[in-house]
Design brief:
- A 7-stranded antiparallel sheet has the order 2-1-5-6-7-4-3.
- Helix content is about 20%, strand content about 50%.
- The chain has one domain: Roll (Pnp Oxidase, Chain A).
- The chain is α+β, with helices and mostly antiparallel strands.
- A hairpin with a 2-residue loop joins strand 1 and strand 2.
C-alpha cells in the first residue's frame, strides 16, 4: 500500500511516497537513512495521506497527523518487520519494498542501514465521493 508522508525541518517541507502497513492504530514503514529520516528525527510531527481512486466520481482520501517514532531495539525492529512483511505479502511487490534486514548492522562495506519506524496517529480526517 502506498501513501505519502510529509515532514518539515529547517524551513523545508518534504513529501514523498512510502510503502506502509496500518496495524493497531499505527502506520508502520521502513526506509534507508536519508533526507526523510533526518527530517523526522529533527521534527517528529508528520502528516500522512493515502487515497483510493477508482474514478473521478468514486474516490476516497484520508489525511492524518501524527508523531514519528523510530524503532531502535532489536525486539521493536523484529516486531515491525513481522507486521510489515505480513501486511504486504498479499501484494505483488519488488525487492525495494521489502526491508533488507541483512544490513541492520552498519558496516563500511554495506549500504545505509534500514530504519524501521511507526507513526502514532494524533488526528485524522477524510473525504470521499461515490456516485
Amino acid at each position: 500500500m502506498i501513501g505519502r508522508i510529509g515532514c518539515y525541518s529547517a524551513g523545508k517541507t518534504y513529501v514523498v511516497p512510502i510503502t506502509y502497513v496500518f496495524d493497531n492504530g499505527y502506520i508502520y514503514a521502513h526506509s534507508k537513512e536519508g533526507l526523510k529520516i533526518k527530517m523526522m528525527r529533527k521534527n517528529m510531527k508528520v502528516c500522512f495521506q493515502v487515497d483510493q481512486i477508482d474514478s473521478m466520481t468514486n474516490w476516497r482520501s484520508v489525511i492524518l497527523w501524527g508523531t514519528f517514532e523510530e524503532l531502535k531495539s532489536p525486539a521493536q525492529q523484529a516486531k515491525a518487520e513481522k507486521i510489515f512483511v505480513n501486511g504486504i505479502e498479499a501484494f505483488h511487490t519488488s525487492e525495494s519494498v521489502k526491508p533488507d534486514t541483512g544490513s541492520l548492522e552498519m558496516s563500511p562495506h554495506k549500504e545505509k542501514k534500514p530504519v524501521f519506524y511507526r507513526i502514532s496517529i494524533d488526528e485524522i480526517t477524510g473525504r470521499f465521493e461515490k456516485q
